[in-house]
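Dear colleague,

As promised, here are the two records you asked about, laid out in our usual form so they can be pasted straight into your sheet.

NAME FIELD: protein one
SEQUENCE, THEN STRUCTURE:
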Amino acid sequence: PRGVRLHAICEHFGLTSDATAAELETLTTGATLDSRDVRDGDIYFALPGSRRHGAEFAVQVVGRGATAILTDEAGASLIREADVRLPLLVAPGDPRSIVGAVSALVYATEDLTAKTFGITGTNGKTSIVYLLDELMRFPEIVESAAENRAPQVLAHYLRELAATFHGFYNAQPI
């Protein structure tokens, strides 16, 4: 899978970290703002919100396989108080200003033209977005299964994809 080492993220964006040199060698292969969407290998962006700080959800992302948390000084304090054991990358200013660029670096899309989908209609737009997200992962899954000689990875992905499709078509009469 594509990805970038944590030390490269720190160097590229001027982030500070109290992680060890070994921890900063960790490969990050995904990025998300939503603690519920964290997958193995993701960097979690713990951002301040209007009501709550994303750092309040740091404990949950550990169990979901996050490799690191990128946040601001206030978030770093909350995460340290919660004794979360993940590499912590701290932005010197508002981390929101670099989230897109960090994601582009992680996904190696800085120089690529993004695929754009227009989804309209009365019902089912969110479901379609989730379906497209899963479908877009197919090439990555096939490559991973082939590289690791692990066909069960592909089988698991296809089972999850089928369940997602089934849920959509069950909920949306066509």
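NAME FIELD: protein two
SEQUENCE, THEN STRUCTURE:
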Amino acid sequence: GKNWHELGRLMNKSDVIEDYIASAYHLIQLGYTHPNYLAGYLAAIFVSVLASACYSRVWHRRSWATWHIAIHTSLPFIILPILAAAIGLSGSRGGALALAAGAAVVIGARFGRHGLLGLLLLTAMVLLIPNPIRERALAEHQQNPVTYARWHMWQGAVQEMVEHPLGVGAGLYQ
């Protein structure tokens, strides 16, 4: 009802996100969903919040006198790290890729080359600093080196298509 709605507004919004993440992990433990699905939804929410923060009209106002403007400008900086951490904790490489691609589109459209350079530096830091996604990818590759065989097949197929753009005969790209 109205009381529940009021408890999830404004500065309490981070509590709502944390409750969502906790309930999602509970559903994973019960077997109702999969971490990759969760990470996909979280990446979509992350990109939506990022786009809202980047394109908000609040950034164009000069008056910081009202609490409403202060909350609007600070709330994304509370929510975005929580969402990014949840995607990292899910261990989903696809979710991390969706987050990076969506963030690149939003930041590239809003801030141009300078924004993309900053995002590239942030991505390099994430890849160098130990985190669950990086550790999972390294452990999976060490445990089963054939994991990335699909990547090698795609590289071979693309190379064949580049070398023979009109094809090499019926069904020979297989």
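A couple of things worth noting about protein two: Helices lie at 2-7, 13-30, 35-54, 67-90, 93-128, 132-143, 149-163. The mean pLDDT is 77.

Best,
R.
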